[in-house]
Amino acid sequence: MSRAQAARDPEGERARSERRMSMDAAGLGRARATAFVLPALVLIAVFLVFPALWTIYLGLTDYRLTGPEAASPQMVGLENYATALGDPRFQASLWLTVAYVGGSAVIGQAGLGFALAWVLRTRTGPLRRLVEGAVLLSWILPSTVVGFLWFALLDRDGGTLNALLGTPGMAWLLDHPLLSIIVFNTWRGTAFSMMLYAAALETVPPSHLETARLAGASVFQQLRDVVFPHLRRHVLTNLLLISLWTFNDFTPFVLTGGGPEGRSEILPIYVYTVALRGGELGAGAAVSFLILLINLVFALAYLRLLRGRRQ
Fold this sequence. Notes:
By secondary structure, the protein is an all-alpha fold. The protein has helices at residues 3-8, 10-59, 68-71, 79-85, 88-120, 126-140, 143-154, 160-165, 172-175, 177-201, 206-214, 219-247, 252-256, 267-277, 281-310. It has 2 domains: 3-59; 80-310, MetI-like fold (Orthogonal Bundle), CATH 1.10.3720.10.
């Protein structure tokens, strides 16, 4: 536009100038946002995306820790996946993992965590602080430390539990390995559910509970008709998180090592046994990718339920 035209149309020129300045500011804002996000994206790519892609690649090869396959691995396609799915040991580990997750996370942690949050919601004083402190301590201690503490508790010869019960020689980890790791994981992970439900119970209007009590509703009826309708989203979120954490938990290895005779060999321990003890990194990577797919199915199922509850 010439100067003469600009002089005849000063308002239009001012509007175009403001648009250019707005576009420049928007571009500068996007550049700054990219600069802030870029380090996080690099870390995600290095520590998450690249290892995941490398695991997928290894799962398609016969790569081993030793032997000629370690020097020059060959592509085997889906052979590792077919071998794993047809392996009775993998199938047994999968069902053990489902029982472990259902017993310790869905029933144990979620149930006990809600029970503690419900009982402590109206309590004050040192008793509440003592219970909360004990539960939180079990959660914040390192996994290895907690594992060895429980190993000392359940030991057959000098275990604390046998001393308290008067049952010397009772081999809890040998006779009841799955039950032992379920109780262990319930004790260790209940704190998260307790804190989540304690915060969620604050959103339940006290007037609704008081009305239900005045109407003669029992505790079960109060929970069913008043409390749980307010906590559905929290319950699903909690179940999603603790199920995924438990499904990928390796800590039971400290207690049982997957034994005896594979009766506590959940999938993370199975992967360790195949990949590191057996040296079959390709097969172990394939099983790891199968675990990733199972986790994805769990997550999608929970998210679908969560969206359904929102609607």
